[in-house]
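[[Encoded backbone]]
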Amino acid sequence: MTSRLAFYIMKTWFQQSEGIVQMNKRVLSFGTHPDDIEIGCGGTELKLLKQGFQITHAFLTSGESGSQSISREELGATREKEAIAAANVMGIEDVRFLRFEDGLTEYTRSMKLEVVDLIRSIMPEVIFTHSPQDNFPQHQVCCKLVQNAIIHAAGPWYQETREKPWDTHVVLGYEVWFPMNRWNTAVDITETVDRKLEALSCHASQLEDVKYDEAFGGLARYRGEMTFASKYAEAFEILKMSGGNLLNALS
């Protein structure tokens, strides 16, 4: 699939999804830290909200290790408040904090089962998570955990889980600190980029040191031009794409 064709397929999805009544219009977005989701897929989420999708943000950690001058307890509480404020700017009401310890180097079975339960309880049509190409170590752990949980959420396994199996049809990997070398779909976010950046501005504790809101505004501009998608775009790696109704909408 060429990048340009993938863009038009995704555009068709946005245009037609409102008429696909069988589609389960729920999105579950995973981030390692508060602000990852807004950076990676915030503009696309805003487009999906306009199509009537319900969106849940799930942060694996509270980002409590992101400072040498603020205590872990204070910073974690601050960053959770910032994540909620950013979600409010976007119009997203459901924000979950799994509160795994910041500084992930691996994940445990109990962590995986918690993510499996979350996927099964939300029953998302679409999951966003970090791309496997993201070289930041904690983001790699998050990606592997979420991908593993997606597989196990779909099967009849794990007696201790509370919810019934759920098979997510679409899984998209987004970019954060390490822009992707390979991508196979791009979404035009020209109409939503300003609100995406407004949501990012809520993460004041992190913007004090690095003005990454400006940097990711520049990345969106670059993606828009270089993917032929639009003026501004978000690029994704397709990690999974299946399901009859959704494929009809994408054709």
